[in-house]
Amino acid sequence: MNIPIDLSTIEATALVSVRILLFVLIAPPFSYQAFPLQIKGMLAVLLGIVVAPQAAQHYAPGSTGQFLLDFVAEATTGAVLGFLVYLVFSAIESAGGMLDFSSGLQAAQQYDPAADINAAQFSRLFQMTALALLFVSDGYQLVLGGLVRSFTAVPLTMSVDWRSITQTLSGSVTQMLLAALQIAGPIMAVLFVANAALGLLSRVAPALNVYSLGPPALVLLAVVLCALGIVALPMIVQALAGQAVHAMGGP
């Protein structure tokens, strides 16, 4: 029995799968440690099989050495794309960290092995809420769509423009910090005014012992304000998903 084997399709599927695998290992929400590694590998292979026919239209197999070089290049491309998405969604975690610092909860940070972060309460709350919203609002499908379109922007065996990647990374860092300030800035401003008011009160009425009453009051105020801020998180997550797709080269 003669079974024809199309090496071009097999190699293209392997290259597509390795790019997707590195992406899902780094990019949220797929990088969440609670998801088994086997599931991530199966997702990468299945998506690779689906995307390979379209991504490998102009792929021509070469020598074994060339395939290994292409393999490393695709792994690097997937890691870079995943890191771009990670930078965009880090704005929510960074905003939570700013609130932890402003409310005095920074000292209560703990390591979360599921999320692989060492953060305090607001950072973990914002991160878990954003993760849930990505799945509930189908934002993960938008991220996967951007990944699939990346094979059009950066086809297989195409050399990566590192100058453009560097500019995109620097721009993503700036956008991440700006988004974090936009999310946490209003609440931080209110907490700053509350701190200043408590400081003035301690000068006017030292007998009130403001230093013992201040930290619980700040924490209570931060919880109330964050409860109002979480209402805006669905719109924020949707906007960040669009930024992530744009960072990967999507329309």
Give a concise summary.
The chain has 251 residues and is mainly alpha-helical.
Helix fraction bin = over 70%
Gap between N and C termini: 48 Å
- The strand count comes to 2
* Global outline: elongated
Instruction: Extract low-pLDDT stretches.
Output: none
Notes on the structure:
It is a single chain. The chain is mainly alpha-helical and 251 residues long. The protein has one domain (7-247). Helices cover 75% and strands 2% of the residues. It is built from eight helices and two strands; from the N terminus they run αααββααααα. The chain has a two-stranded antiparallel ribbon with strand order 1-2. A hairpin with a 4-residue loop joins strand 1 (110-112) and strand 2. Helix 1 (7-26) packs parallel to helix 3 (64-103), helix 3 (64-103) runs parallel beside helix 6 (162-204) and helix 4 packs across helix 8. The longest helix has 43 residues, at 162-204. It starts with 6 loop residues before the first helix and ends with a helix. 34% of the residues are buried. The model has no long low-confidence stretch (mean pLDDT 78).
Layout of helices and strands:
Blueprint: H1 7-26, H2 37-55, H3 64-103, E1 110-112, E2 117-119, H4 121-136, H5 139-153, H6 162-204, H7 210-229, H8 233-247
Antiparallel strand pairs: 1-2
What would the keywords be for this entry?
2 strands; 8 helices; 75% helix
